[in-house]
Design a protein that fits this description.
Length: 189
């Protein structure tokens, strides 16, 4: 120890991910802790949304399973504050999108005011739309902001989106019309 060129700053704290070690102490060869953290952040940011490249060529609704919100009741987010799987016996179609509801009451509420309950950006990931692209929205990664429902692709996307909700909503609102047109206008720099 006496011949070591490294000073000790107390007990080193570290996080091990596979074969990469991120340490708060001085680096002993290899990638520095700060550089490794930056690299991991970039990997997680890139992985936050599996995208479709910014072009929506199908309907403006995210319905890969044939149902809006993958069959979850859009009204339940507002009335029960949680995602609830809808029942096909309470199904309803609006603007070419099939929706399921947990109850007849929820179905009637939706029919009376669909825009109130429809997810923003066609149910696509709100974080992806803020980046001028699209990704499938996960009904379990949701938030209601200013009485509007937003969904995100996964926990990472939901977290990154929540860091600047109003800014990301503004970017999404700006990008959404161009995404629907399938243009690259206003592509982030």
């Amino acid at each position: 120890m006496g011949n070591s060129k490294w000073r000790s700053y107390g007990k080193p704290r570290s996080v091990r991910a596979e074969n990469i070690e991120v340490s708060s102490g001085p680096s002993r060869g290899g990638v520095s802790g700060l550089r490794c953290v930056a690299y991991l952040f970039l990997m997680f940011t890139a992985a936050a949304c599996t995208t479709t490249g910014g072009k929506v060529t199908a309907a403006p609704w995210d319905t890969p399973k044939g149902w809006g919100l993958d069959g979850y009741d859009p009204v339940a987010y507002f009335t029960d504050q949680k995602p609830m799987l809808g029942d096909p016996k309470y199904a309803y179609e609006a603007q070419g999108v099939r929706w399921k509801f947990a109850s007849l009451e929820h179905r009637q509420m939706f029919i009376a005011d669909p825009r109130r309950y429809e997810p923003q950006f066609g149910g696509y990931c709100a974080y992806a739309v803020s980046l001028n692209t699209t990704a499938h929205g996960d009904p379990h990664q949701w938030a209601i902001v200013n009485d509007q429902l937003y969904v995100n692709a996964n926990v990472i996307a939901a977290h990154l989106w929540s860091l600047d909700r109003s800014g990301n909503i503004d970017k999404g609102n700006k990008n959404w019309p161009n995404i629907l047109k399938g243009t690259d206008a206003d592509k982030p720099q």
